[in-house]
Design goal:
- The structure holds 2 protein chains of 2 kinds.
- By secondary structure, chain A is α+β, with helices and mostly antiparallel strands.
- Chain A has 3 helices and 5 strands.
- In chain A, strand 2 and strand 3 form a beta hairpin.
- In chain A, helix 1 runs antiparallel to helix 2 and helix 2 packs antiparallel against helix 3.
- The longest helix of chain A has 20 residues.
- Chain A is globular.
- Chain B is α/β, with parallel strands linked by helices.
- Chain B is 34% helix and 35% strand.
- In chain B, strand 2 and strand 3 form a beta hairpin.
- In chain B, helix 2 runs parallel beside helix 3.
- The longest helix of chain B is centred in the C-terminal third of the chain and has 16 residues.
- Chain B starts with a strand and ends with a helix.
- About 25% of the residues of chain B have low confidence.
- The chains are: A alpha+beta, B alpha/beta.
- At the A-B interface, strand 1, helix 1, helix 2 and helix 3 of A face helix 2, helix 3 and helix 4 of B.
């Protein structure tokens, strides 16, 4: 069963990211997304949108869409994020080497790690000056897991 | 002495919106296909309230001894939440050669901006000859985020408050 498409949109202002989180929480709850899955989507969304605004210099609207499908006890939640920032392939961008001491720690790079560790599937594309990122988090209510 | 600062990091947008309301099972009001009083709605943009949990970020501190200071944060440590408490946190954590325990047990959400703030303050305190550790209690969600990002290698994490205090003073 695939439910109807819903979306939310903000201006490229970091203070508005919370509105997306609030919308996502409502939609995830209405569509039966388990809390732990919603938490992963929220983390990924926050990092991806913040990255688009602060590093991608996104202007104009940022839009997110949530598609949820469930069948036979398994589910997929796909969050799509659209922004008008600089071209940035978040899926294939190289990760920074992780510091091993506090002295070596430098700002940045954690957002990518958080997105890649929480999303089961990531797809990126660009068309007409718009980046599109699809984040999929899967879950299973069956005894054999995913 | 415990000092408390409560910061509202955002304001509701709904005061100018007219539309249908629905109360979700989470208790959040959702305005669907709203129409502002000043501009007719020709789009399907959904305007939302923001729950109280999203709005309020608090920071408290307690000087347990002359050396040991506990700083307790609660709320969402996303960009807005981090901005709301950043100056206060730095001011509290920047005392010379102090031993700091940052209590994240009541943090409901931790983004990379919040982590960056913690690392920055931990580094600064280390450079002053002090030390900063993190107390998590049973906050497994935040623990997982810190471990996934490798922060546990940089800043000690503790589930037990006494162990956190002892490690900060070590």
């Amino acid at each position: 069963m695939t439910e109807a498409l819903h979306f939310s949109e903000i201006d490229s202002v970091v203070s508005e990211i919370r509105h997306l989180s609030s919308w996502l929480e409502v939609q995830a709850g209405l569509r039966g997304v388990p809390p732990e899955v919603h938490a992963k989507l929220d983390l990924c969304m926050n990092e991806a949108v913040a990255n688009a605004i602060t590093h991608g210099e996104s202007t104009g609207p940022i839009r997110i869409e949530l598609n949820v499908s469930q069948r036979d006890g398994r589910g997929d939640a796909v969050l799509s994020i659209y922004d008008h920032g600089k071209e940035f392939d978040l899926v294939n961008a190289p990760l920074r080497e992780r510091p091993t001491t506090l002295a070596d720690a430098v700002p940045g790079g954690l957002g990518l790690i958080m997105i890649r560790s929480n999303a089961d599937v990531l797809q990126w594309s660009r068309d007409g000056g718009v980046n599109k990122l699809d984040l999929t988090v899967k879950w299973s209510n069956t005894s054999d897991g995913k | 002495m415990i000092n408390h600062l409560k910061v509202h990091a955002d304001q509701l947008r709904v005061s100018t919106i007219i539309g249908r309301f629905s109360l979700t099972r989470h208790g959040a009001w959702s305005i669907i296909k709203g129409q502002s009083a000043s501009e007719p709605c020709s789009s399907t943009r959904a305007f939302l309230t923001t729950r109280e949990e999203y709005l309020v970020m608090t920071i408290e501190h307690e000087d347990v001894t002359e050396t040991l200071r506990r700083i307790r944060l609660s709320g969402r440590l996303d960009i807005a939440g981090t901005d709301a408490i950043s100056h206060k946190l730095t001011a509290l954590a920047s005392v010379a050669a102090r031993r700091i325990v940052v209590d994240l047990s009541q943090i409901s959400f931790l983004a990379s901006f919040g982590i960056r703030e913690l690392i920055s303050n931990a580094k600064a305190q280390q450079n002053r000859g002090g030390r900063l550790v993190i107390f998590l209690g049973d906050n497994e969600a935040v623990r997982k985020t810190l471990e996934t990002t490798g922060v546990d290698v940089l800043i000690p994490l503790f589930s037990d408050a006494a162990a956190a205090d002892a490690a900060a003073l070590a």
